[in-house]
Specification:
By secondary structure, the chain is an alpha/beta fold. It contains 13 helices and 13 strands. The strands form 2 sheets. Strands 3-4-2-1-5-6-7 form a 7-stranded mixed sheet, with helices on both faces. A 6-stranded parallel sheet has the order 10-9-8-11-12-13, sandwiched between helices. InterPro entries: Glyco_trans_1, Glycosyltransferase_grp1.
């Protein structure tokens, strides 16, 4: 089964750092290839508006053999469709493909606006950021199948568009990330030294709400709790967060470690108690699973990302809003648990994460695409 993938969520660099585009979609596609999924081409639309103009910028570029950067000549959402259509049609001309798969509605909207005629099914995979665009409904109406990237997104599709039981195409983590969770048994960590050892790993940007977490740390320290908060990552908010920690006198508790290789994270998670990332919006957040795989309990945001994989008050701590007061209450609730309860939570989240390995997520993706092809066989006259 061969697909054309239309998305800007497909970085060509294998090197990961704090400013990289998310690798989650690419990793998911690569996992599905084990089961027979082939990517004939990846089309990435690039907005054309640069200060330093070069003629080559208006030409499509082929990267990594099958990844094509297609320039959009125009300003903001407006682009010259005839030119773009010629480029895309030329790319598709010599490609064999059974499906066209869009990740995010903006990419679907740009492609569908070209009115290219092809007799193959089209699939839209909805991400969290899609709901802020008013053309999402149009894209849903023009494709043959809709999937989502998380349980919370499926629920929102039901509420807003009456789409029932939208299947989730979840991401998974490699087996190497299960650092200390053999059999789901995870030891209790560092409770003799800290009331709670918290950790965050990811890009430091405003939607992650790490500033609210730091304010919560201040409140809890003032209550007399002994804490440590390790932050791994870089980003546009790094300077502001460091200044905040210093200004409220928790810079000895909040430790900034900069960027760390992904392969080093499992041990860091295992050495911590609570992974805090109350980000909003959040499509899925693969790092939640990476933390859970190593017995780290989650503090996240309700109706975002990991919500639905874990449940508030059952095996996770979720806030309605990312205010420091609500986050403080959740951290305090975790601290006040008995050692046996904390141990149970660690084992529970590690067990849940074990069901989201990269191989099973790849198989889930492949089967979903295959089901679309089978369901649409009569419509498009396929064998």
């Amino acid at each position: 089964m061969k697909i054309i993938l239309v998305t800007d969520l497909y970085p060509t660099s294998e090197k990961r750092n704090g400013n990289d585009q998310t690798q989650a979609v690419k990793d998911l596609i690569l996992s599905a290839q084990e089961f027979g999924l082939e990517v004939s081409a990846v089309i990435r639309f690039q907005q054309f508006l640069k200060k330093k103009f070069k003629f080559c910028d208006i030409l499509p570029r082929c990267i990594e053999g099958q990844v094509y950067d297609v320039p959009l000549l125009g300003i903001r959402g407006l682009f010259i469709k005839i030119y773009t259509k010629l480029i895309v049609s030329h790319i598709l001309k010599n490609k064999e493909y059974d499906l066209i798969v869009f990740h995010m509605s903006l990419n679907a909207y740009r492609y569908l606006s070209l009115n290219i005629r092809e007799e193959v099914p089209k699939v839209l995979v909805v991400h969290k950021g899609d709901f802020k665009h008013n053309y999402l409904k149009r894209c849903i109406n023009e494709v043959d199948a809709v999937f989502s990237r998380s349980h919370s997104i499926s629920e929102e599709l039901d509420k807003k568009f009456n789409l029932k039981d939208v299947q989730v195409l979840y991401s998974g983590i490699p087996s190497s990330f299960f650092f200390h969770s053999s059999g789901g048994k995870v030891a209790c960590n560092n409770e003799e030294f800290f009331d709670c050892k918290l950790i965050y790993a990811g890009e430091l940007k405003s939607l992650k709400n790490i500033d609210s977490v730091i304010l919560s740390i201040k409140s809890l320290v003032d209550f007399g709790f002994k804490l440590r908060f390790d932050i791994y990552g870089v980003g546009p908010e790094e300077k502001n967060l460091k200044e905040l920690a210093k200004n409220i006198n928790v810079d000895s508790v909040v430790q900034f470690h900069g960027w760390i290789d992904r392969e080093c994270l499992p041990e860091k998670f295992f050495q911590s108690d609570l992974f805090v990332m109350p980000s909003c919006p959040e499509t899925f957040g693969l790092v939640y699973l990476e933390a859970m795989a190593n017995g780290c309990v989650i503090l996240g945001h309700k109706n975002e990302g990991i919500d639905g994989v874990v449940q508030d008050g059952v095996n996770a701590f979720m806030v309605e809003h990312a205010t420091h007061n609500l986050i403080t209450d959740k951290i305090k609730s975790f601290i006040n648990l008995k050692s046996q309860e904390k141990s149970y939570l660690r084992k529970n989240v590690a067990r849940i994460a074990s069901g989201y390995d990269s191989r099973s997520s790849g198989l889930n993706y492949y089967r979903a695409m295959k089901s679309v092809l089978e369901d649409c066989s009569n419509k498009f006259g396929n064998d």
